[in-house]
Amino acid sequence: MANTRNGTWKLLIWLSAALIGLGGAYATIGWNKDRIDKIEPEVQKNTQYRVKDEEATIWLKKEMANIERGQKEILDEVRKLR
């Protein structure tokens, strides 16, 4: 009879530990979900800004290429005058 009680207690302790672990996992998942839901609008804004920045970067690169081309032409003309 002592073995049965001992086995029952072990089973109850194991089940309690499993339930505590599941509760902790559920709470962590819920906390992460809430955090992601709060961050989601900011991520969307950042994506929109990143797209705008990429468009501006393309324009800036074109303008810089034009300036560099102009500088090269000026430098070539100066070299010819020497």
Architecture overview:
It is a single chain. With 82 residues, the protein is mainly α. 98% of the residues lie in helices and 0% in strands. The chain is built from one helix and no strands. The protein has one helix spanning 2-81.
Give keywords.
single chain; 82 residues; mainly alpha
Note the topology.
Layout: H1 2-81
Class by SSE composition: mainly alpha
The number of helical elements comes to: 1
**Average of per-residue pLDDT values:** 84
* Radius of gyration, in angstroms, nearest whole number: 34 Å
Q: What does the overall shape look like? A: rod-shaped
Q: What proportion strand?
A: under 5%
Secondary structure tally: strands: 0
Amino-to-carboxy terminus distance? 111 Å
Order of helices and strands: H
Helicity range of the residues? over 70%
Short description:
With 82 residues, the protein is mainly alpha-helical. It is 98% helix and 0% strand. The chain is rod-shaped.
